[in-house]
Amino acid sequence: MPTNPQGADTSRYQFIPRVLVFLSRGDDVLLMKRAADRRVFPNLYNGLGGHVEQGESVLAAAHREVYEESGLHPTSLWLCAVAAIDTGDPAAGIVMWVFRGEADGEPASTPEGEIHWVPQSQLAELPMVEDIPTLLPRVLAMRPGDPPLWARYSYTADGELQMHFEPE
Asked: How many angstroms separate the CA atoms of 80 and 88, rounded?
């Protein structure tokens, strides 16, 4: 039996798998203010998340990342969006599974950043990762059982993020 029955071909375009999770508690949303010394998104607010590890399911990665970054265990998670992100690299992009869930308790911050329950009414006041002001309201409007959003992100030659949702 071949060791690669799926036919993976590394000469074709590849995706790096990532997860992003938004937890809520009442009208509050759990966000991380990334530490100033982080290479990616320093001092900006984002959901919790990160890379999917080899041998790990996407859902397991979402649970693990939430626990590692906040110390919380979500009471539920559901898929809200899948985004294909064109990074400009002809060999690899990113695929990001976006989850929503609920959690109780007080989170603990980590060296990656400060964790805060933020009232939805204050979200517009925060400096956020560039896709979050568009993505987060859509995710917060979703309920368990809603079909996921399908998104494609790309960047213009000037570095401006373009977000396309299907159907639209």
From this structure: 25
Distance in angstroms (rounded) separating the CA atoms of residues 111 and 134 = 27
pTM beyond 0.90? yes
The closest of 9, 34, 29 to 91, measured between CA atoms, is 9
Domain boundaries, the chain: 14-166
What CA–CA distance (Å, rounded) separates 14 from 65?
A: 22
The whole-angstrom separation of Cα 29 and Cα 64 is 18
**Would you write out the chain's pLDDT as a tens digit for each of its 168 residues?**
556 566 677 788 899 999 999 999 999 999 999 988 888 898 999 999 999 999 999 999 999 999 999 999 998 899 999 999 998 888 899 999 999 999 888 999 889 899 999 999 999 999 999 999 999 999 999 999 999 999 999 999 999 999 999 976
Q: Yes or no: say if 61 and 48 are a contact pair by the CB < 8 Å rule.
A: no
Supply the DSSP string of 28-66, one letter for each residue: EEEEEEE-TT-SSSTT-EE-EEEEPPTT--HHHHHHHHH
Give the fold, CATH level 3, of 14-166.
Nucleoside Triphosphate Pyrophosphohydrolase (3.90.79)
DSSP track, 62-92: HHHHHHHHHS---SEEEEEEEEEE--S-SSE
